[in-house]
Task: inverse folding
């Protein structure tokens, strides 16, 4: 079993795994929402970052141990640990942030000092709207122009990825503050209405294979071992990469040659949604 997707550790496992893994305890878990703007999903308590969760995203908490919640993210099934203090009650989200970023304010006034930053894809629960601001269930305010109703797709894969142009590269990142190749693809696809796992090796099974001699089209995905890019047109791709240390356009032919020359191998898959 892939540990990134298996809700089990040495102390507890999800009830659905009762006949598949041995654990001292099995649980159905409890649903919560992420309370901070961006929260690291860790491989182990106080360990390295695997991915990140955004404000308002829903997670299933299986355990609270020494200040860390062992959890599984609803959006992609990713399993890991987050600080327990970053969880709040499971209240149904009504809207999501469909601009690159936004802020939470203590009052419906852009001159107020922001309380938190929200990234593309963050979720909020709106209870009232007036004077260009929407009030959340916690009494904070978001610019209404930055929101779309939950369940409403936004843009296409390329348009969504292009929002992040210039965003610094961050291993395991999922936000405007820093993002990696698979985080960029996931954000772009989820917003466009597609399901998408969290890491590039998982994403390599999306859609259908494109023949080697077939021309590439806008929105196609190119994969290498440990890397993924989105095709913008037959000449260019966009990807979060450590060469530019940012989300950037790159000539496809030049990029393919560069990646192979630096020792990361050839393209391993070409996929179309």
Result:
């Amino acid at each position: 079993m892939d540990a990134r997707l298996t809700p089990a550790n040495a102390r507890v496992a999800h009830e659905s795994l009762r006949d598949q893994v041995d654990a001292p305890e099995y649980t159905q878990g409890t649903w919560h929402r992420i309370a901070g703007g961006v929260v690291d999903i860790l491989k182990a308590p106080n360990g390295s970052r695997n991915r990140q969760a955004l404000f308002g995203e829903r997670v299933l908490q299986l355990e609270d141990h020494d200040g860390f919640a062992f959890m599984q993210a609803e959006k992609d099934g990713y399993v890991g640990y987050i600080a327990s203090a970053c969880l709040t009650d499971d209240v149904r989200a009504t809207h999501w942030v469909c601009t690159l970023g936004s802020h939470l304010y203590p009052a419906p006034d852009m001159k107020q000092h922001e309380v938190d930053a929200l990234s593309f894809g963050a979720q909020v629960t709106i209870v009232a709207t007036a004077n260009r601001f929407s009030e959340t269930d916690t009494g904070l305010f978001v610019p209404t122009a930055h929101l779309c109703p939950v369940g409403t797709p936004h843009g296409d894969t390329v348009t969504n990825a292009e929002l992040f142009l210039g965003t610094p590269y961050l291993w395991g990142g999922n936000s405007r503050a820093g993002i990696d190749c698979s985080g960029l693809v996931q954000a772009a696809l989820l917003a466009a209405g597609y399901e998408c796992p969290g890491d590039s090796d998982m994403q390599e099974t999306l859609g259908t294979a494109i023949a080697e001699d077939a021309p590439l089209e806008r929105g196609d995905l190119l994969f290498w071992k440990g890397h993924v890019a989105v095709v913008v047109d037959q000449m260019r791709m966009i990807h979060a990469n450590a060469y530019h240390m940012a989300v950037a356009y790159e000539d496809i032919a030049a990029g393919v040659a560069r990646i192979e020359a630096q020792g990361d191998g050839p393209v391993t898959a070409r996929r179309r949604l």
The first helix runs from residue 157 to 162. Residues 13-88 form a domain with the SH3 type barrels. fold (CATH 2.30.30.40). The two ends are 26 Å apart (CA to CA).
